[in-house]
Design goal:
Length: about 240
């Protein structure tokens, strides 16, 4: 498997509150993560960085050989829960960090499968012939789409489309969604913040990954900037080609 990640503050933002990382906990396995911070200029940056650092540390120290699917899910659960506590405690302890939090979407690739965990509206897309979103946003707009109050096309331009209903570090307890699916040969997974999907279409995402999966992370970020670059932009691309 090959992987690459890219993050950029975008054209209109002064700083980057996104954070990402990917590494191999053992040969043939990959862990990848994207976090999109919120809560002010400094607080959002700190929330996303703390979350990535805490989760990566927990994955490294908790990883062992012959991991079973239940063990992978449990490791993701305990790692994200630990990060939630770290970010929440800091937000409660200092006034300048009050209200900070972060989205998280992360994935473990192992033995021909990928297990994805997420909170918030950062997304995972699987490209295996066709491109499909395998996470569902925890957002006000998604709830309105589910209720039939908005169409998916209307949701893209809805004024409150960035209001999320779940975030890491906001409450003492956290609800995490999990998805496990096959990751066959020639498949590619994209983890990204909404700064990418707000400015790059699904058709453009598929075309860029199909043309050059190894260089897709950098090209996707560049395309988001060409499309307006109105937010921080992050992409992690893991390819089984």
């Amino acid at each position: 498997m090959n992987y690459a990640y890219e993050t950029d503050k975008g054209i209109r933002r002064e700083n980057n509150q996104d954070c990402c990382y990917a590494f191999e906990p053992e040969p043939g396995a990959v862990f990848a993560i994207v976090c999109d911070g919120m809560g002010g200029e400094k607080a959002g940056d700190i929330a996303s960085t703390l979350a990535v650092e805490t989760i990566v540390h927990r994955i490294r120290t908790g990883w062992h050989r012959n991991m079973q699917p239940s063990s992978v899910k449990n490791l993701l659960l305990t790692s994200i829960t630990a990060a939630n506590i770290v970010v929440f405690d800091l937000a409660e302890s200092e006034e300048i960090y009050e209200g900070m939090g972060t989205t998280v979407v992360c994935a473990v690739f192992l033995d021909g499968f990928v297990t994805v965990a997420h909170v918030g509206d950062s997304r995972a897309y699987l490209l295996d012939g066709e491109l499909r979103q395998i996470t569902k946003d925890h957002s006000l707009v998604q709830e309105m789409v589910d209720a039939g109050e908005l169409t998916p096309d209307e949701a893209r331009s809805y004024p409150k489309k960035n209001v999320i209903t779940r975030a890491l570090g906001v409450d003492e307890k956290i609800r995490i969604d999990f998805t496990r699916t096959e990751f066959p040969a020639n498949a590619t997974l994209l983890l990204c913040s909404d700064g990418l999907t707000d400015f790059v279409t699904d058709e453009e995402i598929k075309e860029i990954i199909d043309e050059d999966p190894d260089g897709a992370a950098k090209r996707l970020v560049g395309q988001a900037n060409l499309g307006g670059g109105g937010d921080n932009i992050t992409a992690v691309v893991v390819s089984n080609r």
